[in-house]
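Re: How this chain folds, sequence and tokenised backbone to follow

Filed under: protein folding, tokenised backbone structure, sequence and structure records.

Contents: The amino acid chain and a row of whole-number tokens, matched residue for residue.

Body of memo: The sequence and its backbone structure tokens, given next.
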Amino acid sequence: MIRYFARLNANRADEQLLNRPEVLKLSDFGAQLGFGLSVLEGRGLVQPESTATPTPGTQLPLLTWPFLDFLEHLDLSQQSLVELGSGHSTMWFSQHFAKVRSFETDPEWYRALAAKVDSNVDLSLISIAELERAELEYQGEPWLLVDFAGKRTAFLHQFLAERPAHNRPTAIVLDNSEWYRRGALLLKQQGYLEVPFYGFKSGQAWISCTSLFIDPVRFAPAQKAQFHMPAFSRELDNSWDQL
């Protein structure tokens, strides 16, 4: 797979280099198209359908890439997360959060995943009906991901009704928020600020939205010391960036 494209000055480059088979002669459009395909393949957008059990590090969560890049920028090593809906995301989150409590509704998927999760993951089996009624023990985790196959708005309605504002997560992630606008409205009515992250997801053929709802008073995330630059970012000498 060709990952990066660098323009060569044909008048200055060595002739032997220009004649090498791996040096492609592309138009500007061809270079842009090749770069785009490399990014899509690198991020897992172009991949065969699979129902295989997730393996750590083999696939990104089915959340939008801009949202995942945002999380990569944060230092979550001291944070905990409640995840509603388990899978590849559980593996990924366990490598970023100090602790993950994940709730899964599919017994077969739960059994397959239980043998693979890290020690900082507490995986529980729950019925969809129980989840929609918010019948789970919330232990004050600052992060909550709502991404299960069920009535997510019903869950949010019940979850918010049972807890005062000071005993709720400071950050709630609602995936496919473009489909759950009633759920989004419930969160905004309770004082949460929506930050939508539209973009691609690995393995999908349409644009999706993963929204982060934050409590503007209590949300104070720590940033990593090193600024996160995703794969294919352009690094250059920026010594000119000074006062």
About this structure: Helices lie at 15-18, 28-42, 65-73, 88-94, 107-114, 128-132, 152-161, 181-189. The two ends are 41 Å apart (CA to CA). The chain has a mean pLDDT of 87.
